[in-house]
Design brief:
Helix content: 40-55%
Number of strands: 0
Distance between the termini: 74 Å
Largest sheet: none
Structural class: mainly alpha
Strand content: under 5%
Number of helices: 3
Shape: flat
Order of helices and strands: HHH
Length: 78
């Protein structure tokens, strides 16, 4: 590969890494929260919530959280 190809490849790699780095903490755009296409959302006013709209909850973790919520609280005695 020539020198120009190496420069272009490195710049593309830097662009991909930086776009991933800066986009990881962002919230999903509003049109991703529906299963329908953007056209159906705008024209037909339809929106079925997708899996991106609700965060994934592990049933094992939720079971432990529910169990801990049911336990009585005892303040420390000094």
């Amino acid at each position: 590969m020539s020198r120009g190809m190496w420069v272009i490849s490195i710049l593309i790699l830097i662009l991909m890494i930086s776009s991933f780095w800066f986009a990881k903490d962002r919230e999903a755009p509003p049109w991703v929260k529906c299963k329908e296409s953007l056209f159906a959302q705008v024209v037909l006013k339809e929106c079925t919530p997708s899996s991106f709209a609700t965060p994934y909850k592990d049933p094992i973790i939720n079971k432990d959280e529910e169990f801990q919520d049911d336990l009585p609280f005892e303040p420390p005695q000094n």
